[in-house]
Amino acid sequence: MKMARVYNFSAGPAVLPEEVLKEAAEEMLDYKGCGMSVMEMSHRSKMFSDIIETAEADLRELMNIPDNYKVLFLQGGASSQFSAIPMNLMKNKEADFIITGQWAKKAYKEASRYGKANIIASSEDKTFTYIPDCSDLNISENADYVYVCYNNTIYGTKYQQVPDTKGKILVADMSSCILSEPVNVEDFGVIYFGVQKNVGPAGVVVAVIREDLITDDVLPGTPTMLKWKTQADAKSLYNTPPCYGIYICGKVFQWLKKQGGLEAMKKHNEEKAKILYDFLDQSEMFKGTVVKEDRSLMNVPFVTGDDEMDAKFVKEAKEAGFENLKGHRTVGGMRASIYNAMPKEGVEKLVEFMKKFEEENK
Amino acid sequence: MKMARVYNFSAGPAVLPEEVLKEAAEEMLDYKGCGMSVMEMSHRSKMFSDIIETAEADLRELMNIPDNYKVLFLQGGASSQFSAIPMNLMKNKEADFIITGQWAKKAYKEASRYGKANIIASSEDKTFTYIPDCSDLNISENADYVYVCYNNTIYGTKYQQVPDTKGKILVADMSSCILSEPVNVEDFGVIYFGVQKNVGPAGVVVAVIREDLITDDVLPGTPTMLKWKTQADAKSLYNTPPCYGIYICGKVFQWLKKQGGLEAMKKHNEEKAKILYDFLDQSEMFKGTVVKEDRSLMNVPFVTGDDEMDAKFVKEAKEAGFENLKGHRTVGGMRASIYNAMPKEGVEKLVEFMKKFEEENK
Ligand SMILES: Cc1ncc(COP(=O)(O)O)c(C=O)c1O
Ligand SMILES: Cc1ncc(COP(=O)(O)O)c(C=O)c1O
Ligand SMILES: [Mg+2]
Ligand SMILES: [Mg+2]
Ligand SMILES: [Mg+2]
Ligand SMILES: [Mg+2]
C-alpha cells in the first residue's frame, strides 16, 4: 500500500484521521471476523445495529447531548435539510434568518418557498467578513424559529456567542465546525451537519433535534423521507441508511474520544489556528479577510491582494504538497481548511511555506 | 488482513465483488498516487470529476443508455424517489400503479399524497407470488405515467416482459435487478435504483431519465434537492454527492465490463438461479414460493412449510457460513439473494447444504 499523503486543506470533503482510514482499509473485506465488509451488511443485522448505536452513543457523549434530543443519521446532504427544516418547523409559516454567507442564504431561499422568511441580520454589506451583532435581534413575533449557519465555510466566520433569540427556537447548521469545540446543545432546538467536513465521507447528514420539535404536524406535501418523525420513530432505519458512511463517522467519534474529547479538540484547534492567524497578522504579503473577533477555527481565508500572486501561490503550494488551498469558486483568493483531522504539523509546514513564498516574491 | 469471507445472501446491502473491495482497501489512504483517500477529495476536484464521469460513461456503455437520457447520481435512497417521481412527473396529478409487493405499494402510497394514484393491477390476491398480466392494462386516460417495481426483492418476482402502457411513460424501480441482464432503456421514461443491492454501498441512488421528463414544471413545494432538473443541470454536483459510494459503484461497473457486460451477466445469473430453482423443484422439503414463469434471477424465496424447520434451517445455515438466508421480516421463510457478485460456487455450496439438511431432517 502506498502511503505518500499530502496536506489536504480542502473545505469538504476533507482530510480524515489517518488512523481511521487505516482501520477502514484493514476491515474492508472482513469486519471484526464476520466475514463481510460493512458495505455488504444488512442494515437490519446485529452487526450494523451495534455500529449505528455505538456511533450515536459516542456522539451523545462527545457533545453531551441531553436525553430529550434525538440524533438522526440521514441522507441528502445539508442541502436537503434546507427544505426539511421549514417543512418540519414552520407551524406559523414564518421564520427569521441571519445571513452570514452563501449557506445561510441558500437555506433562507429554500425556506421562502414554504412560508415567510425574514432576514433579521446580515453581514452581506461587508462581503460576509464578520458576524452581525446578535445581542438585540429584531425577532419576528410569529417566527417559528431563528436560523443561523454557525461557521461559514466559505468566508471563514464563526459565531462566538449564541445569538439571543428571545426565546425562539434556534436552528444551526454546524456542518463546518461540528465537534471542533464544545457547544451547549440546550441552547439549540436543532443542530445539524453534513459530515463531510469534520466527521466522515459525504453522504451522511446528522440532525440533533429536541424531541418536542419532532411532530406529525408538518407542512402538507412533506416527503415521508424528509419528515423527521419518520426517521426518529424508525431510529434512522426507516429505509436503508448510508451504512458505510455512518461506520466511518463512528470511527471518527472514537478517535475524538481518544484525543480527549471536545475540550481537548478546542485547545488543539485554537493552537493550530493561532499559528496561521499569527502569521497572517504579521505578514506583509498575506492577510486574513475576516475581522479578528469572528474568525473561524476551521476555515481560514486569506489573500495577497493580487489575483496573479494568489494563483502563483496556489500553484506552487500544490507542487509542494499543500492541496486545495484555492478559495471557494465564488470568492477567489485562498482558504486553508484546518479541520480536526489536520495535524498541527500541516499548519506549521504551510506557514513555513508561506514565509518562504513571501521571501521569494517580495 | 483477515480474509475469511462468508457466503452472504443478504437482500441488500449485499455482497460486492471481492476484487472491488480489495482495490478499495488498497487505495484507501492514497488514491492513484494523489496522496489522499477518495473520502477526502473535494467533489469539485479533477480527480473526483474523473471518477464520476467514468462511472457515468461505463454505466451508459453497460446499459446502452441513449444520449437523450440523463444519468443522475443522487442521495436519499430509493425511498426519496417515491416522492420525487410524482413531484417531477405528475403534471395531470394522476398516475397508474401495478402493485407487486411492498415497494410498489410504498411508492403508490407516497404518490397518493400528491395526486390521484390508481391501482390498475395487483398480485396481492396471491401474496404477490406472481406478476399480473400486463398485456392489456386498464390505463387511465389522464395518467402521467405508469409505475412498476421491476423485480420484487421481498417476494422474488420479476417482470419477464415490459408492460404495455399504451403509450404512457413507464417508470421502473430496478433496485434489485439492475445490471443483472440487459434491458431496453428506451422502453422506459425513468429507470432508477438504490445501488445497495447489485452495485455498491447504500447511500447512492441512480436515476436514468429521458431528457424531456426533466423540467421546471414540478409540483409546488418540491424540495430543490428532489427536483431532477436541479441535479441534471449541475451534473449531479448541485451539492456534495455521496462521493465514496459513487467511486465504489464505478469500480463495480468496471468489474461488470470485465465480466463481459450484461449479456454475460444474464447468462451467468440464469445458470446460478437454475441451480437453486432446479433443486427447489425436485426437493420434497423445500419449495419456491413464486410461480415459475415470474421467478426473479436475483431473489429466491423458499419455505419448508413449517416455521420451526425454517428457523432450524436458517440457524444451521448460518453456522455453516451461509449468512442472511432469513426471509424478509414481513413474510418469513427463507430468501437467498444471489446478486451479480454472488459467485456460482456460493449457490452450489448452498444447494449442497440444503440437500444435506433435507437428508438429515426428513
Ligand atoms: C456550512 C455548510 N452548510 C451546508 C453545506 C451544503 O452541504 P451539502 O453539500 O451536504 O448539501 C455546506 C457545504 O458544502 C456548508 O459548508
Ligand atoms: C425494489 C426496492 N425498491 C426500493 C427499496 C427501498 O430502498 P431504500 O432503502 O434505498 O429507500 C428497496 C429496498 O430495500 C427495494 O428492494
Ligand atoms: Mg452562511
Ligand atoms: Mg497581514
Ligand atoms: Mg413491488
Ligand atoms: Mg419442492
TrEMBL record, chains A, B:
UniProt modified residues of type N6-(pyridoxal phosphate)lysine:
197
Q: What is one GO biological process annotated to this record?
A: L-serine biosynthetic process
What Pfam families is this protein classified in?
Answer: Aminotran_5
Q: Mind listing the GO molecular function terms for this protein?
A: O-phospho-L-serine:2-oxoglutarate aminotransferase activity; pyridoxal phosphate binding
Catalyzed reactions: 4-(phosphooxy)-L-threonine + 2-oxoglutarate = (R)-3-hydroxy-2-oxo-4-phosphooxybutanoate + L-glutamate; O-phospho-L-serine + 2-oxoglutarate = 3-phosphooxypyruvate + L-glutamate
What the entry lists under HAMAP family is as follows: SerC_aminotrans_5
Kindly state the subunit structure of this protein: Homodimer.
Per the entry, what this protein does is:
Catalyzes the reversible conversion of 3-phosphohydroxypyruvate to phosphoserine and of 3-hydroxy-2-oxo-4-phosphonooxybutanoate to phosphohydroxythreonine.
Q: What is this protein called?
A: Phosphoserine aminotransferase
- Species assigned in the record: Anaerostipes caccae (strain DSM 14662 / CCUG 47493 / JCM 13470 / NCIMB 13811 / L1-92)
